[in-house]
């Protein structure tokens, strides 16, 4: 590490952290007796902490974000140059990077047409929800306000996004939530017994799981249902790729009942699964696509809500209705650093052929994780797509009972001690976070994959000796 900070500066940083910082998603009691980890520097796939310890980052900044890796000078320069030209103007006016990124993004999303800039994934989802509600009032006389979301999916931390949240661990004690959000069942083949579909497999299972969405629409009344919001591959709910047959049936159902399809690509978007967007693996045509994390790989805060020309047309001025436009703003949606960074981020992914690397390295890593199942019976299932993989740990393969989450945490801790950062998730059932997460930057090499797998092998042997 070539840090600019002296040891004294860094010990002050740790004290300031302990005295004043409220970390995200963390229980703080342990920090009374141990130091927090402060990430001081990053380069490529690696980061260094305050003690100079090096880590191979297998989770792209902890939450699937730094898709092109750390220390990209060209992104920093693009942001710097843009900031020196003009840092900000409210997005009721345009900007050079804002227009150029919108054009570039849409070129990767056939069928989509309009880009709305915001700051976070939660906010992008909120914008789509608001549009669905406004369409319900404008087009359907105040009906069709219901938004369906899926068990185990997550759409953000704000209250309406949480109202569409399928993960109990995140929601308990934060209600009451917004009305007219209705849950549909998950589509996880590994836990299909929870759906009463254990007798089905493959495509038959996928179609039956999608049909459970139709049952909810019929129960609620199709005239009340405006949209269905789904993650293409569920992230925090346990890294779940929907089964074969699921997506085409979902699309059919949406069409049949005039339900808008909102795909939440906050995690999968911008290359994470080996295509620009997760939905593009399945040939579906969404009405809304939201994205955040990989858009600028964390070099600037930017998120986008993308929709079709058909949706956009519904919001165009109408002389008989002065309220018929999207009466919404996001102040920092006018920051130019975001689209400037996003443009360069996309150029890097194209020029370095990172989608291809993601698909290849993802296949390799998945095969190696599956290989570990022979040796470690604690791995009940390996799932995911591209460089977005999960390994679910179970106490026994027949009952599929999740391991105590403290054990999963120990694996994460042991890997950290050996210099590899991974994550753990499955926020569906409080206290049962038992799915190890792997989502390295798209630049990963075969040597790095081997290091992650070897370290995992050793950590599992140690924790489950
Ligand atoms: N949607 C999904 C699928 C997510 O995983 C997340 C965050 O992890 C969000 C939305 C919320 O994004 P943000 O934290 O940027 O608000």
From TrEMBL:
It comes from Tritonibacter litoralis. GO terms for molecular function: pyridoxal phosphate binding; transaminase activity. CDD domains: OAT_like. It comes from the Bacteria. This is Aminotransferase class III-fold pyridoxal phosphate-dependent enzyme. Signal peptide: none annotated. Keywords: Aminotransferase, Pyridoxal phosphate, Transferase. Belongs to the class-III pyridoxal-phosphate-dependent aminotransferase family. Pfam families: Aminotran_3. InterPro entries: Aminotrans_3, Aminotrans_3_PPA_site, PyrdxlP-dep_Trfase, PyrdxlP-dep_Trfase_major, PyrdxlP-dep_Trfase_small. Its cofactor is pyridoxal 5'-phosphate.
């Amino acid at each position: 590490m070539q840090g600019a900070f002296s040891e004294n500066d860094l010990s002050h940083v740790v004290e300031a952290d302990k005295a004043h910082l409220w970390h995200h998603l963390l229980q703080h009691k342990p920090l009374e007796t141990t130091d927090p980890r402060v990430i001081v520097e990053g380069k490529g796939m690696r980061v260094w902490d305050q003690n100079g310890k090096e880590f191979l980052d297998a989770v792209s900044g902890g939450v699937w974000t730094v898709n092109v890796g750390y220390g990209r000078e060209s992104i920093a320069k693009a942001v710097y140059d843009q900031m020196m030209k003009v840092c900000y103007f409210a997005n009721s006016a345009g900007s050079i990077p804002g227009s150029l990124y919108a054009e570039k993004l849409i070129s990767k999303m056939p069928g989509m047409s309009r880009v709305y800039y915001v700051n976070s994934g939660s906010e992008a989802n909120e914008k789509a929800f608001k549009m669905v509600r406004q369409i319900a009032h404008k087009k359907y006389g105040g009906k069709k306000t219901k938004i369906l979301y899926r068990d185990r999916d997550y759409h953000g931390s704000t209250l309406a996004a949480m109202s569409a949240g399928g993960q109990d661990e995140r929601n308990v004690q934060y209600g009451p939530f917004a009305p007219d959000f209705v849950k549909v069942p998950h589509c996880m083949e590994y836990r299909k017994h929870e759906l009463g579909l254990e007798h089905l497999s493959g495509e038959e299972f996928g179609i039956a799981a999608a049909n459970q969405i139709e049952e909810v629409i019929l129960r609620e009344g199709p005239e009340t249902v405006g949209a269905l919001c789904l993650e293409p591959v569920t992230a925090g709910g346990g890294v779940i790729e929907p089964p074969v047959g699921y997506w085409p049936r979902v699309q059919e159902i949406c069409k049949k009942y005039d339900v808008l399809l909102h795909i939440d690509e906050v995690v999968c978007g911008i290359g994470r699964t080996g295509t620009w967007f997760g939905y593009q693996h399945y040939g579906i045509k969404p009405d809304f696509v939201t994205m955040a994390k990989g858009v600028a790989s964390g070099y600037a805060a930017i998120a986008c809500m993308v929709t079709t020309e058909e949706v956009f047309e519904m919001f165009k001025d109408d002389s008989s209705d002065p309220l018929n436009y999207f009466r919404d703003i996001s102040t920092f949606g006018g920051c130019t650093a975001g689209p400037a960074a996003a443009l360069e981020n996309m150029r890097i992914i194209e020029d370095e052929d990172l989608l291809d690397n993601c698909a290849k390295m993802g296949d390799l890593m998945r095969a190696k994780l599956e290989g570990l199942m022979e040796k470690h019976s604690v791995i009940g299932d390996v799932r995911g797509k591209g460089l977005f993989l999960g390994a679910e740990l179970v106490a026994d393969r027949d009952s599929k009972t999740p391991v105590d989450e403290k054990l999963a945490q120990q694996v994460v801790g042991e890997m950290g001690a050996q210099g590899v950062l991974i994550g753990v998730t499955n926020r569906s059932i409080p206290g049962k976070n038992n799915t190890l997460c792997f989502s390295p930057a798209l630049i990963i090499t075969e040597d790095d994959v081997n290091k992650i797998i070897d370290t995992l092998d050793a950590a599992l042997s140690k924790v489950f000796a």
